[in-house]
């Protein structure tokens, strides 16, 4: 996790000279599709379908798959929204994959990456993202709150990811309305499928 965050800080530094351009592109991006509302739309469980080429734990998954084709298949299968990995170094993704997925369907699309700076939010909105993932473990409390506020200002929903009870409590303290439990420990990449059941008991009904 620490190595990933170091890489992200480097990517953010490379974006800084283009901050004004990213702001302008974000302002001109297509209207946001409601991500949270799509997940809350019906009484039954809604599916957030993921486009991921590879991962550090599993290696290659669908390395050669075209994001647009995968997105259309997910939409035909009844997905409510899409999650697209945009990290290149560790997951083989990019923002072009997000653009392709969004252009191919009418579904709202979440940028799944390791967001550590507002520049990445502008970049996400400029690429057409309707929502972003914020990982509690990757952010201190002040930055988590700032990024939640900035995402809302840009019109994007934020799915906040937690792995422990302490992280759930931090997310709730920051005012999260959309919370996801990651059953995989990002430090060890081990998975505990019972974790969601344990942590959901501590989440108020008002939080999705």
CATH-defined superfamily = Aldolase class I
| Rg computed from alpha carbons, rounded to a whole number of angstroms | 16 Å
The CATH architecture comes to: Alpha-Beta Barrel
Order of helices and strands: HHHEEEHEHEHEHEHEH
Roughly what fraction of the amino acids lie in strands? Answer: 5-15%
Biggest sheet descriptor:
6 strands, parallel
User: What count of domains describes the coordinates?
Assistant: 1
Distance between the termini: 26 Å
What is the fold-level CATH name, i.e. the topology? Answer: TIM Barrel
The number of helical segments is 9
Strand order of the largest sheet: 1-4-5-6-7-8
| Helix share bin | 40-55%
Quickly give the structural class. alpha/beta
The coarse overall form would be globular
> What's the average pLDDT?
94
| CATH class category label | Alpha Beta
Number of extended strands: 8
Runs with pLDDT <50, length 5+? none
Can you tell me about this structure?
- The protein has 208 residues and is an alpha/beta fold.
- It has one domain (2-200): Aldolase class I (TIM Barrel), CATH 3.20.20.70.
- 41% of the residues lie in helices and 15% in strands.
- It is built from nine helices and eight strands.
- The chain has helices at residues 2-15, 19-27, 35-40, 67-76, 95-104, 118-126, 141-153, 165-173, 195-200; strands at residues 48-51, 54-55, 59-60, 81-85, 109-112, 131-135, 157-162, 179-181.
- The strands form two sheets. The chain has a six-stranded parallel β-sheet with strand order 1-4-5-6-7-8.
- Strand 6 (131-135), helix 7 and strand 7 (157-162) form a beta-alpha-beta unit.
- Helix 2 packs across helix 6.
- The radius of gyration is 16 Å and the shape is globular.
């Amino acid at each position: 996790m620490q190595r990933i965050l170091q890489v992200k800080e480097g990517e953010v530094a490379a974006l800084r000279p283009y901050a004004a351009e990213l702001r302008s592109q974000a302002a001109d991006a297509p209207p946001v599709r409601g991500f949270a509302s799509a997940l809350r739309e019906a009484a039954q469980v809604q599916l957030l379908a993921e486009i991921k080429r590879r991962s550090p734990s599993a290696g290659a998954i669908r390395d050669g798959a075209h994001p647009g084709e995968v997105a259309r298949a997910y939409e035909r299968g009844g997905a409510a929204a899409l999650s697209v990995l945009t990290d290149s170094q560790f997951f083989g993704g990019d923002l072009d994959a997000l653009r392709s997925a969004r252009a191919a369907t009418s579904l709202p699309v979440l940028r799944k990456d390791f967001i550590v700076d507002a520049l990445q939010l502008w970049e996400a909105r400029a690429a057409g993202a309707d929502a972003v993932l914020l990982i509690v473990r990757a952010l201190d409390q002040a930055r988590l709150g700032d990024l939640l506020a900035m995402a809302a200002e840009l019109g994007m929903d934020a799915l906040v990811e937690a792995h422990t009870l302490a992280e759930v409590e931090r997310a709730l303290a920051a005012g999260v309305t959309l919370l996801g439990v990651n059953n995989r420990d990002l430090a060890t990449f081990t998975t505990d499928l019972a974790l969601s059941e344990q942590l959901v008991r501590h989440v108020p009904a008002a939080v999705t």
